[in-house]
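Design job #97: recover the sequence.
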């Protein structure tokens, strides 16, 4: 079918485009032979007829192929692959060739198409008869009708879809139909499965079991049934249920899910030991006392009886120095009052620092175990709400 003349042939579309190009060149040159115009127009109409008949024939052959019965799966699979590949190649070039043909139709019509048909009539050299029996008008009417059919295929005048789109429809439908037919063939070739067939297959397995133990294992694997492992379970208070009570009348007994897999009920182990956190509490309490002692020592070391120059502080340990820097930084970040004085409280509210602007003079030097700080010699006063006052002397002025 693919090799027959009824196939969807891309060469037919290419031949139509070539003949339209020849007609455009002949129409543009009136000096050419009219016989060439006639033969070119006849070839164009022949290719159009071939395209129309090929499309119909291909679709009919495809439907007949799909109705063929008794074809083995391998043969149909090969036919399906060849046909689908062929149709994909055809669709890949279809849009471009249809657009080329539509542009060629416009190119021919830009010339005098009526004059072109008159030249074709002259080139046909029809027999000269009387006016009543002149075949010329009918021949021209037939050519005009064929040209309108060409336009309907590739460039309709009324804006309706071109008939060339039918090639798309035929090719796509053919691909989908082939794939569906192959699926149906696969389903028909596949052996049906059901409960009855499964039981028959299981019976064949039982018949082929080498030993009785193998048959029992097959039974357990197939049906999951076993002995009544829960028969030994008793009510939580056995005295409430007389020994002669039938099982259907006795109250239900909870059955563990583990009996199904392991044959045993749940076993509750001992409760996990509670972690002894006494050592952790002691360590945390000791660390908290040490931090409070360091904070109290820093308060005592930083507390002053009045305004003191930073240059008079002298040497501090590193922890106390860090807290002094925090207090000074907080005071410098606070807004000054009308006299330029800045105040700041610590986060716990236990320490208040008052800072006055530094006056011109030598810088203040504070020494610590980690280094030396040099900066403006501010006048500060540090008050603590708890703890003893420091023994530093107050000094106001330079």
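Job complete. Output follows.
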């Amino acid at each position: 079918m693919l090799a027959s003349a009824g196939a969807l042939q891309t060469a037919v579309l290419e031949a139509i485009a070539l003949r339209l190009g020849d007609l455009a060149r002949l129409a543009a040159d009136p000096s050419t032979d009219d016989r060439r115009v006639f033969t070119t127009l006849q070839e164009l109409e022949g290719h159009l007829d071939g395209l129309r008949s090929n499309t119909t024939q291909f679709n009919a052959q495809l439907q007949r192929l799909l109705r063929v019965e008794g074809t083995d799966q391998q043969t149909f699979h090969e036919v399906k692959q060849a046909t689908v590949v062929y149709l994909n190649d055809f669709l890949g070039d279809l849009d471009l060739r249809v657009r080329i043909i539509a542009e060629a139709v416009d190119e021919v019509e830009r010339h005098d198409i009526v004059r072109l048909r008159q030249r074709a009539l002259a080139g046909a050299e029809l027999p000269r008869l009387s006016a009543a029996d002149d075949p010329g008008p009918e021949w021209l009417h037939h050519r005009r009708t064929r040209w309108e059919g060409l336009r309907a295929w590739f460039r309709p005048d009324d804006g309706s879809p071109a008939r060339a789109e039918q090639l798309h429809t035929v090719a796509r439908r053919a691909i989908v139909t082939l794939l569906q037919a192959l699926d149906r063939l696969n389903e028909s070739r596949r052996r049906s499965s059901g409960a009855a067939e499964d039981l028959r297959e299981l019976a064949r397995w039982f018949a082929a079991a080498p030993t009785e133990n193998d048959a029992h294992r097959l039974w357990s694997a197939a049906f999951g049934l076993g002995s009544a492992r829960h028969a030994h379970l008793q009510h939580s208070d056995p005295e409430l249920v007389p020994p002669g009570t039938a099982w259907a009348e006795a109250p239900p007994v909870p059955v563990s899910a583990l009996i199904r897999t392991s044959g045993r009920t749940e076993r509750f182990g001992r409760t996990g030991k509670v972690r002894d956190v006494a050592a952790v509490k002691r360590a945390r309490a000791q660390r908290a006392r040490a931090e409070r002692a360091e904070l109290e020592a820093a308060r005592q070391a930083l507390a002053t009886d009045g305004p003191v120059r930073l240059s008079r502080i002298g040497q501090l340990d590193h922890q106390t120095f860090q807290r002094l820097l925090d207090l000074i930084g907080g005071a410098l970040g606070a807004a000054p009052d009308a006299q330029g004085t800045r105040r700041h409280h610590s986060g716990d509210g236990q320490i208040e620092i008052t800072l006055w602007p530094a006056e011109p003079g030598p810088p203040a030097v504070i020494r610590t175990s980690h280094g030396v700080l040099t900066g403006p010699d501010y006048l500060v006063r540090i008050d603590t709400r708890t703890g003893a006052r420091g023994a530093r002397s107050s000094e106001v002025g330079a």
